Amino acid sequence: MFSLAFEKREHELSADLGRVKEARDFADRCALEFGFGSDARYQLKLSMSEAVTNAIQHGSPSESDPVWLSAVGEGDALVFSVRDTGRFVPRVTRGGELPERGRGLEFVRRLMDEVDLRPSPDGTLLRFAKRKTDNVVAQPAKPAASR
């Protein structure tokens, strides 16, 4: 049985690439509190890094624009949202080509159990979720043996 004790977390940062580490740290803290092991935590941090980098580079016209992050537990899944103020423009690729840039969303899709991109006139929302399974649950640390 999974714990439902995880309370919603929110964080706001400016659209500055220097703040991406702050977003990764937010994702890692949430994933740790939710009970994910190191492999799933790494996947969540990488997905957050890609999502926020995209929001900053493609979604926000100014470094002063906000990027909003949230994390919420939904049953056995930890769901993150990244919202920016820009308009999503789909990238057109030619068949068989693997571009040097623009692969971040594909990374997120491969690492997460669910990904939902929601463009709107007010900005773009990217939701991604990782489900907790028995093989990714962090094991409690064993107490050190006393002498």
Mean pLDDT: 85
Distance between the termini: 36 Å
Total number of strands: 5
Secondary-structure content class:
alpha+beta
Topology, pairings included?
Blueprint: E1 9-14, H1 20-34, H2 38-59, E2 66-74, E3 77-84, H3 104-111, E4 114-120, E5 123-131
Antiparallel strand pairs: 1-2, 2-3, 3-5, 4-5
Helix pairs in contact: 1-2, 2-3
Question: Would you give an account of this structure?
Answer:
With 147 residues, this protein is of the alpha+beta class. 31% of the residues lie in helices and 27% in strands. The chain has helices at 20-34, 38-59, 104-111, and strands spanning 9-14, 66-74, 77-84, 114-120, 123-131. Strands 1-2-3-5-4 form a 5-stranded antiparallel sheet, with helices on one face. It is globular. The termini are far apart. Residues 135-147 have low confidence and may be disordered.
Task: Name some characteristics of this structure.
147 residues, Heat Shock Protein 90, five-stranded antiparallel sheet, disordered C terminus, alpha+beta, 3 helices
